[in-house]
Design brief:
Elements (H helix, E strand, L loop, with lengths): L1 H18 L17 E9 L3 E4 L2 E4 L3 E10 L5 E10 L7 E11 L3 E11 L3 E12 L9 E8 L5 E4 L14 E3 L3 E10 L5 E10 L7 E5 L3 E3 L4 H5 L5 E9 L5 E12 L4 E13 L4 E4 L4 E3 L4 E10 L7 E7 L21 E9 L9 E10 L5 E10 L5 E5 L3 E4 L4 E10 L7 E7 L7 E4 L12 E9 L18 E10 L6 E9 L3 E4 L11 H7 L6 E12 L9 E7 L3 E4 L11 E6 L2 E5 L4 E10 L8 E12 L2 H5 L7 E5 L1
Parallel strand pairs: 3-9, 11-18, 20-25, 27-33
Antiparallel strand pairs: 1-4, 2-3, 4-7, 5-6, 5-8, 8-9, 10-12, 12-16, 13-14, 13-15, 13-17, 17-18, 19-21, 21-23, 22-24, 24-25, 26-28, 28-31, 29-32, 30-31, 32-33, 34-35, 35-40, 36-39, 36-41, 37-41, 38-40, 41-42
Length: 650
């Protein structure tokens, strides 16, 4: 009654106090000029509460509501905290409790207040925690809302570690020795109701007597979590232990591991795991090899680990098969050594992926062992996949290429992608020996992307050094000299190099070198003016004509040679000079010789004159000197090459 009469008076006082405050503009106030009361968190304790995938669920029980509040403002102030409940979205609000918090200091950290509230069953309920006080600078943070359902949610889970038997690697069942065993699982209450729990192991074998055996653990009470305990990491997990003697068990049984829960409304049985288990004194473990990728042409070894984990010495029959035939199955039908309890042996199986295998082809290698003691078989399957194999086939199409000194020739080649994946190849060409002054150039240095089976063509240009007198042995250009040129291809991503080589053979040749002492005569302006228009330009050059050859036989036969001057040409420095070439004359003396022996040299002369009467025009005069050999019958019959040689004097 006192509280009801005081409230209107308090409201009037607050209103009058508010009206008495002086006005202030925005420039003299801030968002927190005064107290700033706020609700920071609402958590539940004292009964079950849990967040599920569909939202918050509370037990129909009495809960302790933990409300964290603070004053983030710059001034202290008196505040009130209320807890308000709505039983449904359309229900009216009901005040559960209101607490006078007294004066809250400025910038005070969160303080926790506890209120008791009893939840009744029903969906879509809401609790509001609200704080209020005079001169609150920010009322937007004065309320914290929790939406929830109230129901008897029964839920549970098992955490690791657990000590249940597991299916043995390579088998479809677990193995247990015929001794005493203890198993346990740790159960967590994920619902909102406390319950009693026990683990029940049910063993079934229709051929045994009895056909069903039940093994129960102790019974434990497991309390539910609350949002407060979950928030601070305090989650209870209780172990359930079951012990039984397996000495009377043998052969294959089905094991069902169940958890029986009872929250007071009747037991609920849930099957956690179910699997087959074999009781035997002969127990083994087979650890298989990991799957892998191997390039065609390469080999890999699969190691299978066999361990005797039983209490009795045992031996095992090996079985190996391969769907593609890549695996070495020579161990099929053989036996391992006798393995005492705890002993281990490794069984290697070699696998070779053949050349030409398509990318991503897979071989399935099946490996199994059969116990000599129990007859039980453990199996494992390993897959080996053909990986990327980058390879090119290089084919130089010419068996033998005949070349001539001083000339160039081309040698063709093909590059085919004979791997199992698209790629490009870098190409390198060269000579297998190191001949002096030979030059080679490859037309392409990369194939570009080639699909599997695709071919690209190219060529190598080879330049042979000209004949010197005497021959230089290191130049390897004597008649019949032979060397090899190669092309190597390697994938730009890396691969084993592939190459092919072709033979080059030098043909016999005879040439007559005019022996010009210079190839350019430079006439200055002074030289031309001194010659004047009366005597013209007169030049006499001594020639050292040589009969050069690369023959190693038929050296006694002589040749004839003609030495001539070809058509004289003129290129003006600027323009004009269309008739300038006609003002020049040149000739060789002697211009014909016969009976020349191979390797012979003799002197000759080249005379050059310009026409009298005019000063020569500025520009370049080209005077070609040509030698043409004539071979005898022996050389002709031997297909000796005797080209016409032309040298230009400018």
């Amino acid at each position: 009654m006192f509280r009801q009469k005081l409230l209107p008076i308090l409201l009037v006082v607050l209103l009058v106090g508010h009206l008495a405050l002086p006005f202030a503009d925005a420039s003299t106030t801030t968002a927190r000029s005064g107290p700033d009361f706020q609700v920071n968190e609402v958590l539940f304790d004292g009964a079950g509460s849990v967040f599920t995938s569909s939202g918050l669920v509370l037990a129909p029980n009495t809960h302790t509501v933990r409300i964290d509040v603070s004053n983030a403002g710059s001034s202290s102030g008196n505040a009130f905290l209320s807890l308000v409940h709505k039983g449904s979205p359309n229900a009216a609000e009901q005040v559960v409790n209101t607490v006078d918090l007294g004066v809250m200091a400025a910038n005070s950290g969160p303080a926790t207040y506890l209120m008791s509230w009893t939840a009744t069953t029903g969906p879509s309920q809401t609790l509001f925690a609200r704080i209020s006080g005079a001169n609150d600078a920010n009322i937007a943070n004065n309320e914290y809302r929790r939406d929830f359902d109230v129901e008897r949610l029964l839920d549970w889970s098992i955490t690791t570690p657990e000590t249940l038997p597991t299916v043995t690697s390579g088998s479809t069942s677990a193995f247990l020795e015929r001794t005493s065993h203890k198993f346990n699982v740790s159960v967590v209450n994920d619902g909102v109701m406390p319950f009693s729990a026990r683990m029940q192991i049910v063993l079934t074998n229709a051929s045994a007597t009895p056909s069903t055996v039940n093994i129960d653990s102790e019974i434990k009470t497991i309390h539910p979590p609350s949002t407060y305990n979950t928030n601070i990491g305090n989650v209870e997990a209780l172990p359930l232990n079951a012990t039984f003697d397996a000495s009377s068990f043998s052969g294959l049984w089905n094991m069902s591991v169940r958890v029986v829960l009872d929250d007071g409304s009747g037991p609920v049985t849930d099957t956690y795991k179910e699997f087959d288990v074999t009781f035997s004194d002969y127990i083994a473990e087979l650890i298989g090899a990991a799957k892998r990728t191997t390039s065609p042409g390469d080999s890999t070894t699969l190691f299978y680990t066999v361990k005797n984990i039983g209490s009795t010495t045992d031996s095992f029959t090996i079985s190996v098969s391969s769907t593609q035939g890549w695996a070495d199955t020579s161990l099929d039908g053989t036996f391992t050594d006798f393995l005492i309890s705890g002993a281990t042996t490794l069984v290697p199986i070699h696998v070779t992926v053949p050349h030409g295998t398509s990318l991503s082809d897979v071989d399935i290698i099946s490996f199994s062992i059969t116990s000599a003691g129990s007859g039980h078989t453990l199996s494992n399957t390993t897959r080996v996949m053909a990986g990327e194999y980058l390879e090119a086939t290089v084919d130089i199409t010419n068996d033998t290429t005949h070349v001539l000194p001083g000339k160039s020739d081309t040698i063709a080649f093909n590059i085919t992608n004979t791997g199992n994946a698209m790629t490009s190849f870098d190409l390198v060409a060269g000579f297998t020996s190191n001949p002096l002054n030979w030059v080679h150039n490859i037309s392409i240095d990369n194939t570009g992307e080639l699909a599997v089976g695709q071919t690209v063509s190219g060529f190598i240009e080879v330049e042979v050094p000209p004949i010197q007198l005497p021959l230089v042995p290191a130049e390897d250009n004597a008649a019949g000299s032979s060397l090899n040129v190669y092309v190597t291809a390697i994938a730009d991503a890396g691969s084993i190099p592939s190459s092919d080589s072709g033979q080059i053979e030098v043909r016999p040749a005879i040439v007559v070198d005019p022996g010009l002492p210079v190839d350019t005569i430079f006439l200055t302006q002074s030289d031309v003016l001194n010659a004047g228009s009366t005597i013209g330009v007169n030049e006499i050059l001594g020639l050292n004509v040589e009969v050069r050859h690369n023959l190693v036989s038929d050296l006694s036969e002589t040749i004839d040679a003609n030495i001539t001057v070809g058509n004289i040409s003129f290129e003006a420095l600027t323009s004009g000079g269309f008739n300038e070439a006609d003002r020049w004359n040149a000739s060789v003396t002697p211009n014909q010789t016969s009976g020349l022996t191979l390797g012979e040299s003799f002197p000759a002369s080249l005379g050059i004159q310009s026409r009298v009467g005019q000063i020569p025009l500025a520009g370049t005069v080209k005077i070609p000197v040509t030698t043409t050999p004539t071979l005898g019958g022996v050389h002709t019959a031997s297909s000796v090459y005797a080209p016409t040689i032309e040298q230009n004097l400018s």
